[in-house]
Amino acid sequence: MIIGVYKPVKKDKKVIGYTILNLFDLYNKGSQRYKVSYKCDDFGCKTPNKIYSITREHLNEKRSKTVNDKIQICRSCQTTGKNNPRFGDNRTWDEIFNKETSDRLRKNLSDRSIGDKNPSKKDNVKEKKSQIIINYENVNKYLNKFNFRLNSIEGDNKFSKLSITCNNNHIFNIQWASVKTRQNMCRYCYYDSIRIPFDEIELFETYSKTVRSLTRFTFNKNKNIIDPDGLKELDSKNYHIDHIYSISDGFLNNIEPKVIASVNNLRVINKTENLKKGKKSNLTIEKLMGMYNN
Predict the structure, then answer these.
(1) What Cα–Cα distance (Å) separates residue 244 from each residue in 250, 290, 294?
(2) Which is more confident, 253 or 121?
(3) pLDDT of residue 68
(4) pTM of the model as a whole
């Protein structure tokens, strides 16, 4: 409920007081500097008799879903439950504003965020965020730290396609977004380290995906056996599910994925221990098959 509207009185550009105004046409015109006092109209308000004061600019459609009905809701009620405009309000601009206003808002948003007008693409914005400006010179300088060489680059954002030569002279393609997330950028060096022939990489990747999918199923079904202390559930970042007989050895020795993902070949160990173990197997084929068959 609106109680009063007050116009600021200025002297030497400073507000020295307020004069009361008529409530007529409050929602249709008026200075943004006007002060408006009101009581909350929400039925469940905890402070229904408290008088609030806000500026005229907040009396618009953005303030609450019910403002068009001349109902005023306090900040507490506005941000909780059904009155919160951020949740459950699926109205479009066309439903709130007239067509001319909604088209203008849509165009303003488009002008700010599409193409070269997107502020995140500007060099000064990237510098403020301490982000690398993606071009050939900067990306090549970054890659040189890891003894990689940039052959070519297409694009100027995180989806830029890079052609890179590693220190073992392997040429591979990768997105810029993946450069910082992958510990070993060169997939050929990685597969060489686990003794996977280059012409069998795709077969190995299919085999590995199958094993890991079966592993998730086996672990979820047998948590009490594989992880009796619940370490993985308590601290998933620092504990890994380890294949005692490794996936790479399973592929090289033609062992079925279901055997590598079986209960007896899974255990939960510390992240550091697992990374140190790497591709090594702590079981022989005979022992693995013996446990699986039993």
Answers:
(1) 11, 14, 17
(2) 253
(3) 45
(4) 0.52
